[in-house]
Model the fold of this input.
Amino acid sequence: MKSILLYAFSLVSMNIMAQPDIEDIVIRNAEDAHDELETVEECADWILTSSYNPNDPTWDQMSGFILNWARHTNEFPIRMRTELTGFMKKNPVLMSVYLAGWIRFAIHHPEARGNELNCTDAALTSCVQFYSTHKEQLKTDPTLDQLVDVSDQGELILWISKELRELDSRSR
Done:
């Protein structure tokens, strides 16, 4: 019995320790954002790997932190094109997932921080994976269902490339 309780306690402890401690962190400018690079990476990892529970206040805390960090950083040019991310209207949590995917990719590939195609691919791939994994907790979205199909065919980056080219040609 003692070993079962010890095992259960260690699992609970590991889960609590996996959450970044963001309670006392205040980010007001780019310097603050730079100082919290390690924390935002932990937060991005938490968002991308944790089970989603819309009633868990930790989700709001992590989402708020990553959004605030993204607003203040000048090291990471994060771009959200509404033409590619309209699905977030039905499932707002996917904004945090998108940012987490982009940030995590940019941290691990500093040479690609300004590469919109690769960063968008990482961000949308994160959204597709999250949507597929947590479909029961999210609203059904035909656009995301199509992106899941495109991703399953291994053509998501090709689709993104085509969409970005079309958007850029319209803005000229």
